Amino acid sequence: RADYRHHAIDALAIAFADRSTLKKLARRRDRKDKSQIPYPWSGFMDDAAKAIRSLIVSHRPRRKIKGGLHKDGNYHPLSPKQIQRLIDEGVVDKKKEGKNLYSIHKPVADLSPGEVGKIVDRLLREQALRIQENANKNFKKFGEILTKPMTKPDGTAVNRVQVAVADDSIVLLGGRYVATGNNHHIAIYEIADERGKKKRVYRNVTMLDAARIAMQYRQEWKEFRRTGISKSEWMRTRDPIVHPVHPDYPDSKLIAYFCNGDIVFMDGEYYRCTSWSSTSAQIWFLHHAVADGKKIKEFHTEDSEIKYKTSCKPSTYNGQKIEINVLGEVICPVKKQRFFVR
Do 200 and 314 contact (CB within 8 A), yes or no? Predict the structure, then answer.
């Protein structure tokens, strides 16, 4: 079941399973009849395998703005004095984590191995590290090795601690700091540097950013709808969620953009976009027929040369974005469209 094309195999079996065949299968199950069930025609298995391998699975891109706009939990910006103390104590790296440093309260029992060494309070951090060292075993949550509650110097039990977090995705929203949740899309642009050499840059748009643009559209439409202009005509004058030009580079050119589920023809195979990193811009793709990326090792096929999981960066992307309709027909190239929220 790791291959989406098993649905086509099921449909093929049902199509040729008449009442007589079902009776023969039932008798074979009860071991009353061991005779071979004939194929519908000679060479049926070869024809079926050829047809199944030629199928292209249709995936629906997830372009809707829905889901959590930010992650759970409130973050608190650390003061310059606290940041410098953590740098001096070796808790955070000045170059990598010295900027955009925040703290979040977490239950002691839910701390991961990496978070134990990021506890803001020095005494509690040293106490937790001693417990971790004495346990001398791997764990996923700190509560697995915690035999008794951690305590302050005055003996007060500690159930929650402040953990230092360096995250560029944390933004101020409604008077509190939150980490943005899901990403909406990533766009790749081509620009020319000072020497005229072409290079590529990217822009990651979070679900929160897309929701803000959609909200702005709706507010503006409420004002313009009284002018008698049709909504379709009005939307042609608005900026799309996927900008054709990078906001920081006016002379840039849009190469491609990806939402979760978009199909790409790359390296001779069809892949669907599954995720990307908002910081490194690494974009991950799965073969169109793979149902679960975690089960690629179980993905048995005769086409052993096929790469079922691949990735690229904006600078190395050399694919062609395509569309596959519900009939499995390939539409290439993709029709240019202005991506609006309706």
Answer: yes
Phi, psi of 107 (to 5 degrees): -60, 140
Please state, in angstroms and rounded to a whole number, the distance separating the CA atoms of residues 319 and 312: 10
Radius of gyration of the chain, Cα coordinates, nearest whole angstrom: 28
Q: Is 225 helix (H, G, I), strand (E, B) or coil?
A: helix
Report residue 179's pLDDT band, with 50, 70 and 90 as the boundaries.
confident
Cis before 107 (ω within 30): no
Cα–Cα distance measured from residue 33 to residue 28, given in angstroms and rounded to the nearest whole number: 5
**What residue type is assigned to position 342 of the chain?**
R
Q: Mean pLDDT in the chain?
A: 84
Token look-up 């009353």 returns 32
Q: Could you tell me the two tokens for 273?
A: 């976009």
Long-range contacts, 42-51 (Cβ 8 Å, 24+): 48/9, 48/12, 49/302, 51/8
Report the SS3 class of residue 102: strand
- pTM confidence score: 0.74
Sheet holding 101-107, edge to edge: 76-77, 101-107, 160-166
- Cα 268 from chain centroid (whole Å): 23
d(CA 63, CA 259): 6
The interaxial angle of helices 6-16 and 44-53, nearest 10 deg, is 150
Cα-based torsion angle of the residue sequence 173, 179, 182, 187 in order, rounded to the nearest 10 degrees: 80
